[in-house]
Design brief:
Helices cover 25% and strands 27% of the residues. By secondary structure, it is of the alpha+beta class. It folds into five domains: 126 residues, Bulb-type lectin domain (Agglutinin, subunit A); 127 residues, Agglutinin, subunit A; 135 residues, no CATH class; 104 residues, 2-Layer Sandwich (Phosphorylase Kinase, domain 1), CATH 3.30.200; 233 residues, Transferase(Phosphotransferase), domain 1. It has an eight-stranded mixed beta sheet. Strands 34-35-36-38-37 form a five-stranded antiparallel beta sheet, with helices on both faces. Helix 8 packs antiparallel against helix 10 and helix 8 packs antiparallel against helix 13.
Length: 829
């Protein structure tokens, strides 16, 4: 009898257990989810429960990934109403609202009771977490009858399948809001939101200030996100109808985890989960560089990150405030050079390719109009300033018209879009004439060059044959004549005062060892005093130096034409009795490396002095890159080549390896790589490719050395084998950048945020990809203002290595055409 009773009870108990196990993704109307309990989606992808973020003790109801080891929260319910203990509970009300209560049974948060679907009746509501991360409230009898869903109210995370935009019927606008910090999920300072005015586009805002704009969708991508391309991870889509407009994406491989997150610092970035590393790997960023800052170049200004300065006016426009523009303040933008002739039929349009289209909030569009009709409509309206295709697929279709000023434009090397800008006909004619003249000029150059080459070849062969006949009898005479001629020509080319050898020898006491200041790759440097009492520094070309006559002449020709308070001043030269010397103004505090790398003298450089030295070097490099008559790449910027005057002002020196670029050039290649290990950029050291950004890399290394008092090359740390750059980046990622600060400046460092900002700027300058590094004009702006800084990417040479050398070594590499390399290591500079 007892067995008869017990058996049914066991079966009922087992059946109940099975039912509970099968219903772990659901919370019924009569159930409560307490702190410590969770529900898990049917496929085990997501989990719902109470949690505490980071080091916080506050409790929140959230959703996180279930299958990965690193807790990553994708949605928070009570983000602005935290619980302060473990007494929180989640319940569902009769009207279908989610409710969170504290230990005193006070309601601290509830979901919206407005239904997302067209059905308004609520019948036996339940809560369910889906494998899409969507937490839904639905009627128990209908899987699709959602009363409320979390994907309609996202936090800082954009996940697969989510509709990121606006439903015009229900009025729901799904947008991202950053957390306040990594430990605080409350509403932060940044939002990324669809703006439906004109042609829809997303805006990243800091509080109410526009910070970044994606640009409109052109059928393939947002025009301000050229890095958005088809990929093997996810497939994206943009939907724009009368009922709704939204952006979404779906996974190509469901096993891959990827998310888009708006971080507390305003960075909108995509990550993918790498299971082998058990970490999230950075994939791409919506903002790529400083040119993405909203309206950086003002009205009718265009930003090109590969140019210096980055901002310039569109063709047919000039700076509204030339003085401010030259000084790097582009906020006032540009104005038309020639006013429009609207109403007289004399305006036309200039095609400008490869652009991020201007702000479309004041635009008008038609999805079906062809481009020729688009142009006609724009011409008929005097306030229409530009037009472009709405969709660039299949040759282009549709029409966008802009009214008023064109704002927030930038140029791309690829994946940009054509914009037709309205100009007076006289301006159009001028550019067409210039274009035709350029074509004709190029044709003439080719024809004349070919003819000149043939003439020179004939003359050369004739002269060669004549010289060959006379060579045997006149070889000695000609050699002597050439030597004398070369010496005279050399002296005529050097546009500086000449000092004879006796004067310099007397000033340096016969180049006495007592007066010797140091030794570099060029040769020894001596202190001297002229008869007039002026102190000088004499740099003498060593006979054993690998740097020869070309470097000597190069330095004189360059530095003689430069005048800046942060560049060392050259006073003259000497070429006599096979001696070649450069005479500089004497700097009593010698070079920067004699301070920052010396255990005792480093204390003489407190933090205010160090930051002024950094700013002085930045101003000097900006002058070389953008403001001098020549565009100069230094190629050997390092601590020993920065001299300090009596007031500790920085003076950049040693231009023997510098190279000039044409007015429109920003880069060049060489088969001879010369410079100093530890300071050379990866693209220059490996491929011989140097640019303005190569100097920026060297500057970034120097900044980190000044802050830390440690050399990049030969840097050691017990925890790893990274160089100083790798160590600094690692500390930055772990929020331990403050540990990098030289202990010698601890007492003088009253504002830790300033030091951390300088370290941040240094890391931006040493990024692996030259395109990611800022120009020196932007560096100077970042050092002198509170402008928001982007997160740095991985620095160059970020790899662990064997520590073979402890000192910096200058190198001279010859790179032959077969891509093999031979290396000659010369004396430390």
């Amino acid at each position: 009898m007892e067995a008869t009773i017990v058996l049914p009870l066991l079966l009922i108990s087992l059946f109940s257990t099975i039912l509970v196990a099968q219903a772990t993704d659901i919370l019924a109307a009569n159930q409560t989810l307490k702190d410590g309990d969770t529900i898990v989606s049917q496929g085990g992808s997501f989990e719902v429960g109470f949690f505490s973020p980071g080091g916080s003790r506050n409790r929140y109801l959230g959703i996180w990934y279930k299958k990965i080891s690193l807790q990553t929260v994708v949605w928070v319910a009570n983000r602005d109403s935290p619980l302060y203990d473990l007494s929180g509970t989640l319940k569902i009300s009769g009207n279908g609202s989610l409710c969170i209560f504290n230990g005193q049974n006070y309601l601290i948060w509830s979901s919206s009771s407005s239904p997302s679907s067209q059905k308004t009746s609520v019948r036996n509501p339940i809560v369910q977490i889906l494998d899409t991360s969507n937490l839904v409230v639905r009627n128990s009898g209908d899987d699709q009858d959602y009363i409320w869903q979390s994907l309609d109210y996202p936090g800082d995370m954009f996940l697969p399948g989510m509709k990121y935009g606006i439903n015009f019927v229900t009025g729901i606008n799904r947008f991202l809001t950053s957390w306040r910090s990594l430990d605080d999920p409350s509403t932060g300072n940044y939002t990324n939101k669809m703006d439906p005015n004109g042609v829809p586009q997303f805006f990243l805002k800091k509080n109410s200030v526009d910070y970044f704009r994606t640009g409109p969708w052109n059928g393939l991508r947002f025009t301000g996100m050229p890095n958005l391309k088809p990929n093997p991870i996810y497939r994206y889509e943009f939907v724009f109808t009368e009922e709704e407009v939204y952006y979404t994406y779906k996974l190509e491989n469901p096993s891959v985890l990827t998310r888009m997150q708006l971080n507390p610092n305003g960075a909108l970035q995509r990550y993918t989960w790498v299971d082998s590393l058990q970490s999230w790997n950075f994939y791409l960023s919506a903002m790529m560089d400083s040119c993405d800052l909203y309206k950086l170049c003002g009205s009718y200004g265009s930003c090109n990150i590969n140019e210096s300065p980055a901002c310039r006016c569109l063709k047919g426009f000039v700076a509204k405030s030339p003085e401010a523009w030259v000084a790097g303040d582009w906020s006032e933008g540009c104005v038309r050079r020639v006013k429009l002739d609207c109403g007289k039929g004399e305006d036309d349009f200039l095609k400008i390719p490869k652009l991020k289209l201007p702000d479309t909030r004041t635009s008008w569009y038609d999805k079906n109009m062809d481009l020729s009709e688009c142009k006609k409509v724009c011409l008929r309206n005097c306030t229409c300033s530009a037009y472009s295709p709405f969709d660039i697929r299949d040759g282009g279709k549709g029409c966008i018209l802009w009214f008023g000023d064109l704002i927030d434009i930038r140029e791309y090397n690829e994946n940009g879009q054509d914009l037709y800008v309205r100009l007076a006909s006289s301006e159009i004619d001028k550019y067409n004439i210039h274009y035709m003249k350029g074509k004709i000029r190029m044709l003439l150059i080719i024809v004349l060059s070919t003819a000149l080459f043939l003439i020179c070849l004939c003359i050369g062969l004739t002269v060669f044959n004549m010289k060959k006949k006379k060579l045997a009898t006149k070889e000695t005479v000609q050699r002597e004549s050439l030597r004398v001629s070369s010496r005279k020509q050399e002296e005529e080319d050097l546009e500086l005062p000449f000092l004879d050898l006796d004067t310099i020898s007397e000033a340096t006491s016969g180049f006495s060892d007592v007066n010797k200041l140091g030794q570099g790759g060029f040769g020894p440097v001596y202190k001297g005093t002229l008869a007039c009492g002026q102190e000088i520094a004499v740099k003498k070309l060593s006979r054993t130096s690998r740097q020869g006559i070309e470097e000597f002449k190069n330095e004189i020709k360059l530095i003689a034409k430069l005048q800046h308070r942060n560049l060392v001043k050259i006073l003259g030269y000497c070429v006599e009795e096979d001696e070649r010397m450069l005479i500089y103004e004497y700097q009593p505090n010698k070079s920067l490396d004699s301070f920052i790398f010396d255990k005792e003298r480093r204390r003489e450089l407190d933090w205010p002095k160090r930051v002024e030295i950094i700013k002085g070097i930045a101003r000097g490099m900006l002058y070389l890159h953008e403001d001098s008559r020549l565009r100069i790449i230094h190629r050997d910027l390092k601590a020993s080549n920065v001299l300090l005057d009596s007031d500790m002002n920085a003076k950049i020196s040693d231009f023997g390896l510098a190279r000039t670029l044409g007015g429109d050039e920003t880069e060049a290649n060489t088969t001879r790589v010369v410079g100093t290990y530890g300071y050379m950029s990866p693209e220059y050291q490996i491929d011989g490719y140097f640019s303005l950004k190569s100097d920026v890399f060297s500057f970034g290394v120097l900044v980190l050395e000044i802050v830390t008092g440690r050399r990049n090359r030969g840097f050691r740390n017990e925890e790893h084998k990274l160089n100083l750059l790798g160590h600094a980046w690692r500390q930055f990622l772990e929020d331990k950048a403050y540990e990098l600060i030289d202990e010698a400046v601890n007492e003088s460092c009253t504002d830790i945020s300033e030091v951390l900002r300088v370290i941040h700027i240094g890391l931006l300058c040493v990024q692996q990809d030259p395109k990611d590094r800022p120009n020196m004009s932007v560096v100077v702006l970042m050092l002198s203002s509170d402008m928001l800084l982007l997160d740095p990417r991985q620095p160059g040479f970020f790899n662990e290595r064997n520590l073979l050398f402890s000192d910096t070594v200058s190198i001279n590499l010859e790179i032959p055409s077969n891509n093999l390399q031979t290396m000659s290591v010369i004396e430390p500079r």
